[in-house]
């Protein structure tokens, strides 16, 4: 039987550099939109992630702004299996994020030079392709399947 992670365990787990899975209410007859994203989180703080405003990702941005809430899940896919899901309220959508804010996310996933180049290039784009979302965790769900 899985056990629920403690507050410290779940916050530390979410703070690790994992790929998050974001889910937001769909529109019309479509189901919720569920997509993988890079993110940043510090224990006790808010969740941040970015998305685009053009092309295929424009729908994600619009849905997040319209719904004002989301579900976000990270997991450990190898034994001992664990997951943390947070239900969040969107606090802010920054259409002109600072390089430092984007770098706080990209540096978790890319080597230093690549992370800096990605952050510099995307924040300097005059078409404004990035929206940096800040979301407050309101409710936590978690499980550790490695515990007896």
Automatic annotation (TrEMBL):
<protein>
    <submittedName>
        <fullName>Pyridoxamine 5'-phosphate oxidase</fullName>
    </submittedName>
</protein>
<dbReference type="InterPro" id="IPR012349">
    <property type="entry name" value="Split_barrel_FMN-bd"/>
</dbReference>
């Amino acid at each position: 039987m899985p056990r629920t992670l403690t507050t410290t365990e779940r916050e530390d787990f979410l703070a690790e550099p994992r790929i998050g899975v974001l889910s937001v209410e769909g529109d019309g007859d479509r189901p919720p939109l569920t997509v993988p994203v890079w993110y940043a989180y510090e224990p006790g703080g808010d969740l941040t992630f970015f998305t685009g405003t053009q092309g295929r990702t424009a729908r994600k941005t619009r849905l997040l702004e319209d719904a004002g809430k989301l579900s976000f899940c990270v997991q450990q896919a190898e034994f001992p299996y664990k997951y943390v899901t947070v239900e969040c309220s969107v606090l802010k959508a920054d259409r002109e994020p600072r390089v430092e804010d984007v770098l706080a996310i990209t540096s978790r996933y890319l080597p230093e030079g690549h992370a800096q180049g990605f952050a510099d290039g995307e924040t300097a784009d005059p078409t404004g392709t990035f929206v940096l979302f800040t979301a407050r965790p309101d409710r936590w769900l978690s499980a550790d399947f490695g515990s007896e």
